[in-house]
Write a structure and sequence with these properties.
alpha/beta; DNA-binding
């Protein structure tokens, strides 16, 4: 299946670099380029892409607001943030707006393609440094507190790892991993793996400090 991509990026050199990179992939098609967020929202409605690559700092309206508007109109939209910003302010604003992925612009080509495919498949994927900041605040305060091991599992889930990959990384049995995932979903009120990190953010279970 071909993944149709809309690029929302105001810097021409970055857009052209992304286009050059993505054109080499057999399963990707670039269907549009937006240079500001107003244009991104309008082009999403016209083109209905599978994934939006969204910059955060653009003219007129920021990328988080564009993400919110797109998700408001199309709740199943798949938006992958690609930015230079790794601070809490930008991360949490984008995730609360509905972004399913958050990568930094220093990511490798392979990691970018992995993220695009994961987000297109309705998975949540965060850069490791971003995932660590997101789950760091889920500690203390009541019966639904995540354990240290569950935090480790959640971090790896945020990186798009499968149960078997998580089991290998943490040197635990796949069956144990499955139990941890089920506990995380239950504690965070998530209906599936994809929602776990986002729900933790949106329900204010995470510290911004």
């Amino acid at each position: 299946m071909t993944i149709r991509i809309l690029i929302a990026e105001d810097q021409r050199i970055v857009r052209e670099g992304l286009i050059a990179l993505l054109e080499d992939e057999d399963d990707v098609e670039i269907v549009g380029e937006a240079v500001n967020c107003e244009q991104a929202v309008a082009m999403y409605e016209q083109l209905n892409p599978d994934v939006v690559l969204m910059d955060l700092q653009m003219p007129i309206v920021d990328g988080a607001e564009a993400t919110r508007r797109i998700r408001e109109r199309s709740p199943k939209a798949h938006i992958l943030v690609l930015t230079t910003y790794a601070t809490d302010e930008f991360i949490f604003k984008a995730l609360r707006a509905g972004a399913q992925g958050y990568l930094l612009k220093d990511t490798s080509a392979d990691d970018l393609m992995h993220a695009i495919r994961a987000v297109a498949a309705d998975q949540t994927l965060l850069a490791p440094a971003v995932a660590a900041r997101v789950v760091a605040g889920v500690s203390g305060g009541g019966p639904d507190t995540l354990t240290a091991r569950e935090l480790e599992v959640l971090t790896l889930m945020g990186q798009g790892r499968s149960n078997n990959e998580i089991a290998l990384a943490l040197r635990i049995a796949p069956r144990t991993t499955k139990v941890h995932v089920q506990n995380i979903l239950s504690k965070l009120g998530a209906t599936n793996r994809t929602e776990a990190v986002s729900i933790a953010v949106r329900q204010n279970l995470l510290s911004l400090s």
